[in-house]
């Protein structure tokens, strides 16, 4: 998954402002206790980060974005 696709999906699932907040502020256990942004900055594959988002927020991510 391309990084631009990742951000598009995150914004579609959460809205633009909230997506940025979640990426910067929410620590996800699925990412080893890192935020989305920290995981991406550390070089984690976007598909791995996206799967962590889907696992952490199953009710917020529409099935078409999974």
Helix tally? 4
According to DSSP, the number of beta strands is 2
- How far apart lie the N and C ends? 12 Å
Q: Strand order of the main beta sheet, please?
A: 1-2
Question: How would you sum up the global shape?
Answer: globular
Integer-rounded radius of gyration: 10 Å
Percent helix: 55-70%
* Helix and strand pattern: HHEEHH
Question: How would you describe this structure to a colleague?
Answer:
Helices cover 59% and strands 6% of the residues. α1 crosses α2 (16-25). It has 66 residues and is mainly alpha-helical. It has one domain (3-65). It starts with a helix and ends in a 10-residue tail after the last helix. Strands 1-2 form a two-stranded antiparallel sheet. The longest helix has 12 residues, at 3-14.
Quick synopsis:
The protein has 4 helices and 2 strands. With 66 residues, it is mainly alpha-helical. InterPro entries: DUF3046.
